[in-house]
Amino acid sequence: MPMIKADAQKRIEKLKEEIWKLNKAYFIENKSPVSEDVRDALKQELIALETQYPDLVTADSPTQRIGAPLDGRLPKVRHLTPKESLSDAFNHAELEDWVVQMKRALGSEDATFEFLCELKIDGLNISLLYEKKNDHFELLRAVTRGNGTEGENVTHTVRTIEAIPLHLEPKDAANLPEYMEISGEVYMPKEALAAVNSTLPESDRFANPRNAAAGSVRQLDPSVTADRDLRIFCYGLNKDAADAMGLATQKEIMDTLHALGIPTERSLQLCTSLKEAESMYEQYQKKRDALPYDIDGLVLKINDRRMQFDLGSTAKAPRWARAYKFPAEQKTAQILDIQLQVGRTGAITPVAILTPTHLAGTTVTRATLHNEDEIIRLDVRIGDTVVVQKAGDIIPEVVEVLLNLRPEESRPFHFPLHCPSCNSPLQRPEGEAVHRCPGTNCAAVLQEKIEHLISRYAFNIDGLGKETIEVLLERGLVSDMADIFFLTYEDLMDLPLFKERKTENILSALHKAKKVPLDRFLFALGIRHIGRETAELIARRIEWPTKDLTVEEQENLGAQTSLFGASSKRVTVHGIAMNDICRTLQKLKEEELSVIDGIGPRVAQSLLEWIAEEDNRALLHKFENAGVLALQPEGAATQQIFTGKVFVLTGSMPALSRDDATKMIKDRGGKVSGSVSKKTDYVLLGENAGSKYDKAKELGIPTIDEKEFLSMIA
Predict the structure, then answer these.
(1) CATH superfamily ID and name for 88-325
(2) Burial readout 316-349 (b: 16 or more C-beta within 10 A, e: otherwise)
(3) Residue 120 catalytic?
């Protein structure tokens, strides 16, 4: 007999609560108070009641994890807070160097550290954003790490992971933040990988659990993800949320996440010395194969969050954490040939062609030999049997030659004198280990440049693959990077395997890509030493002449402004003409660039050498003629009034958080240090300033309060 609606509503709430408790016991506490059949029966009862009364279905119901498939590409969104990567350490000596660097940064040789040591899970990095709703939190979105600033919105698939709660109910409702952004690693257990691969054809099987996790999360259809046994371990909480909740240590963050029902890896240990951390490292290096999931080392974090703040971050990574990686897996292979690979900057890299070798989860047939000096050092020869490993678990490299297995007829390898693509004489700049092709019309260099230009973190243009670019070059349809924006319908329809729909899609993608964020455009140019983070610094720290967008230029702007965070709040965007970019770069001086924190003289010199080349200035003008326009959010570029100045922050301020003040200083070209020294220019004082104020008075360093600081930047 059907249940009346009032009774059904009560039963639904009880079922949701009970299923949530059972999920928490199973995924968080590793307990099984009932069998899986019982959990499934409760879920089926809930489905039946919600089918009978669809208006009683809520977004946080366990039945609502699987939504509709997405149509097209995964959308990009901006992280609430930037996601930093971790610096690696591969031996104890590198850990000791890290400790020395932290003591130097703090200005105290007597500083002592407590480390929270966690297992480094080998999976896909994900940020879970929870939004406050009265006295609880609801999962708002899940985003991949991406480039650290923005990532792919994968909420539709991550919701299907049963270990991830769709809502959180803190026991203490006081001092709750508006948002909690929780960092974690989605992984696939080893047994689950075997089960998934057993259902796939051999050519489609995943090489390792990390690839399986990434491939499963990035599915457009969430039902595919739901069928795979994905799990998650979380390890981080955004600073504003941790501050609001009064969490003073990294350990308190982990315990709070665990109490909220967020899965955390519970093997973590507090270590008061590197010796203790080393002991844990050796313990898990021995038992890693017996674990149900892949790990590739430990992560060491300074436990004290105030000390974390004082240490700060470099342009790429926090100074207060290190990934202590296990030694790379090594295998032997035979060298069949040595070939030269030409990069987008003309760099020539020798590559060993190997007998197929299974290494760290993939089949390897190529390994880098780095440069001529490395070939000479190892005395690598064709026919040699060599030891191969993956540098950083990513790039295969030759690390040793097994001389006892060397063929008698082998001959030393002599580094070629000419580019394998255009036959230009190779050059080796003084002080560098790399040979370079100087050919301005080298097809291999142009191929690499165009592939870089259209890549994910540059113009992000789909449809133009490696083979298509090769054909475009062979037919003379492109002679520089800007030429891809002049391709016509007739040009593309004449290419092999191009049909009407594919051609129209590519032309549409090229048209939309003509409006590109400035930092992506600078990165897309492929200038030596200018990576994504450096391009973002240049875009933000230099004053660019902007203009209001015309009605036509505002067309289809949504996809690009989402990269500035427009998906969560409105962003006013201005345009920067290519000719203005050219003029601005020409006016720059090396000294004004090199003092910007995170840039330095090498990057400054590289940028100025690039713009000094007539061909590069002509390229910018050609982008202008093609209709390419750089985009910049309002307020992104700030006058560098603190260039060369060093600030120290101490105490708590009435209005500004320490993060806010730090950002204001860095955005204006200044640096923030954790300790007072003769190099300090200002000490920004809050309440309970402490010893840093005393040190400033002793050294005669100017001190300012929040009001004086704000008047300086007004």
Answers:
(1) DNA ligase/mRNA capping enzyme (3.30.470.30)
(2) eebbbbbbbbbebeebebbbeebebebbbbbbbe
(3) yes
